Amino acid sequence: MPNLSSQKITQFLKFGVVGLLGLCWDTGTVYSLRPFVGLTIATIAAYFIAASINWLINRLWTFRNVGNQHHFVIQWLRFLAGNSLGFFLNRGCVFTLFHLSPIFKTYPVLALAAGAAAGMMANFHISRKLVFHPESTHPERKTAEIVPFQPERAVVQNTVSSRTAVVNSRSKLG
């Protein structure tokens, strides 16, 4: 069995609770918008509404102790972009079920629940690794240092490349 930290398990359980609440917002939005814009548009719009609310609750509750080093708008955009895999798993499942049986079109909550389950694991791992990660997950990396010109340093002679010699020979007038 993989080594799971208690923090990761707690985060997963909280993420699941937020996901269940998200299913409620998702379902409520689909049922509210469906008479006005149709099932397809309502289903797509509902995902973004539910995902945005889920991001906010995950930011404030599930991952409140880590990963808030980004401006909230940037983090929200990262959440939506990062969870695009979950979006395709979720809505792919939903639309597939809509086309498989009329029962899912009649009761979209069934397809929405299946879609939420399909995308949950991907969304959790992506959110944890790319959106709500601690500030410093990597050790300090060594970078190149730019040193100002120092005339007292010895300069190696004959370091001109053959390309430089060719270019210079072409530029001579004569």
What can you see in these coordinates?
This protein has 174 residues and is mainly α. The chain has one domain (4-64, 71-132). Helix content is 71%, strand content 0%. Helix 1 packs antiparallel against helix 2 and helix 3 (72-82) packs across helix 6. The longest helix has 32 residues, at 6-37. The model has no long low-confidence stretch (mean pLDDT 84).
Summarize the structure.
This protein has 174 residues and is mainly alpha-helical.
The average pLDDT value, as a whole number, equals 84
Q: Output the number of helix runs.
A: 7
H/E element sequence: HHHHHHH
Biggest sheet character: none
Number of strands: 0
Helix content: over 70%
- The radius of gyration is 27 Å
Bulk shape: elongated
Helix/sheet category: mainly alpha
Give unreliable regions as ranges.
none
Organism: Komagataeibacter swingsii
Subcellular location: Membrane
Keywords: Membrane, Transmembrane, Transmembrane helix
Family: Belongs to the GtrA family.
Looking at this protein, list some descriptive labels.
174 residues; mainly alpha; 7 helices; 71% helix
Give the secondary structure arrangement, pairings included.
Layout lengths: L5 H32 L1 H24 L9 H11 L1 H17 L1 H5 L1 H24 L30 H10 L3
